[in-house]
What we know:
Elements: H1 2-34, E1 39-40, E2 48-56, H2 72-76, E3 88-89, E4 92-93, E5 97-101, H3 104-107, E6 108-109, E7 117-122, E8 125-127, E9 130-134, E10 138-143, E11 149-153, E12 163-165, E13 172-175, E14 180-187, E15 194-200, E16 205-207, E17 213-219, E18 222-230, E19 234-242, E20 247-249, E21 252-254
Parallel strand pairs: 1-6, 2-20, 2-21, 7-10, 9-15
Antiparallel strand pairs: 2-17, 3-4, 5-16, 5-18, 7-8, 10-13, 11-12, 11-14, 14-15, 18-19
Amino acid sequence: MFKKSAILLLAIVVLAMMVANCKPKKKNLEENLDTPKKAKYESKADEGEIKGVIKFDGTAPERAKIDMSQDANCVRAEGDKLNDDVLVENGNLQNVFVYLKGGNADKFEFGAPSEVVVLDQHGCRYTPRVLGVQVGQTLEIRNSDQTTHNVHPSPKNNPEWNKVQSAGQAPFKEVFKKAETLIPVKCNQHPWMVAHIGVLGHPFYAVSGKDGSFSIKNVPPGKYTLIAFHEKLGEKQMSIEVTAKESKVQDLTFSPKAAFIPTSLTVEPALIVP
């Protein structure tokens, strides 16, 4: 009797181990299907650059004052209290996320850089308002304000998270595992706080500065789609080719009403988002 019970118990243990061993294999298979292997990019020292200026056609919208009266710490915080969703200076547009799609950008594996990208909360604003990271790169979230914030991205391809960060609390880190442009970020405590994060599988992206300028460096020669995204003015796409060691200059123009008119390159249909 004792011998039969021991054999039965051993059989149950073996069966449990077999089931346990099967689960990780299924998960790994699913992961492999989601992220097919790419060849690692090998530089031939012939990379080029795409640079230009993002211009705004028309009269810049007036920046409305933000009502921060719900939080006295935000009222006392540094910085102006004006809306910053459309920033135009001398006819140049800031905070446009410019990136490449297709061609060698999507063909090869470029690896995540070790450099940490920082998203701060300062003056009850996200700083910067628009930023980019690579898949697998570390994003560090800081709170430089004397108040509690609530960092809440709303991705479509990556897991959603929602974290409270009080004044003086240590930064926390996150990593996005899938490419996605662009992920909106809000603060549930302060509804005027907005950021957008572009997550790409390659390093070929930039954000236009105060002077509207952008520069995408170390671009492998080839044909791509150049995409420029603004959170209020929409997205523009165009075909572009970079030859060996070329420094390609391509300005882009946004307008609330007019469609994009190319300067010299083949253009794909523009999508204007209200």
